[in-house]
Amino acid sequence: MEKKEKKSKSEAQSEEKIVKQEDSQVQEDTVETVVKQEEQKASLLEQKELEIVQLKEQLAAAKEEVASCKEQMLRDRADLENYRKRLIRDKEDTIRFANENLIKDLLQPLDDFGRALQAADSTKDYTKIHDGVMMVNAQLYSTLEKNWGLEKIDAVGKEFDPEQHEAYQVAVDDTLEHETVLEEYMGGYKLHGRVLRPSKVKVGKPNV
């Protein structure tokens, strides 16, 4: 009987020891689990903080890029406006000085004409005056013809051409076979082959 009681007591102690060990293991497991969870939370928090830092850096870079683009756009707009103003100014200068070379070419005949007028004041030899004026006229026409493509339209004796001749007066002439320019009242000219001013003429018409 005593042996049974001792055995029972021993078993009870053994079971109690096992229970304590199990409780201790459970506590250790719980602590380890909590530690792991906290470590995971800390790691996740650190990762989020790193992401926030990266996002802030990206935002700052984006703002800097936007500011740079805006500044470049303003510079481009200013350059475009300056270019537009320069084009307008160049166009105005082109129009203003379009005849510069022509004027330069006319200066010499103009000077010669002035000298001819001075000579006319100091002489009564009208032949010399006439020759001087004719020389200036020839020089002027030669300059315009050679440098600027001016060409005098032939009129007298030519068949009437309404593209080149303007009929100022008309006369019937039985000797004519077709309309013919009899007289020229005002000379006509072409510029590079295009009629600049038609000749004003008297036209003879055959009696039909």
Describe the overall structure.
This protein has 208 residues and is α+β, with helices and mostly antiparallel strands. The protein has 3 domains: 1-97; 99-148; 151-208, Head domain of nucleotide exchange factor GrpE (Nucleotide Exchange Factor Grpe, Chain A, domain 2, Roll). The protein is 67% helix and 15% strand. The chain contains 3 helices and 6 strands; from the N terminus they run H-H-H-E-E-E-E-E-E. The protein has helices at 2-96, 100-121, 126-148, and strands spanning 150-152, 165-172, 180-186, 189-191, 194-197, 199-205. Strands 1-4-5 form a 3-stranded antiparallel beta sheet. The protein has a 3-stranded mixed beta sheet with strand order 2-6-3, with no helix packed on it. The termini are far apart.
Largest sheet: 3 strands, antiparallel
Radius of gyration: 57 Å
Strand order of the largest sheet: 1-4-5
What distance separates the N and C termini? 176 Å
Which word captures the global form? Answer: rod-shaped
Average the pLDDT over all residues and give the rounded result: 83
Number of domains: 3
Determine the structural class based on helices, strands and strand pairing: alpha+beta
So how many helices? 3
Query: Regions with pLDDT < 50 over 5+ consecutive residues?
Result: none
Q: What is the number of beta strands? A: 6
The helix-strand sequence is: HHHEEEEEE
Report strand %.
Answer: 15-25%
Indicate the percent of residues in helices: 55-70%
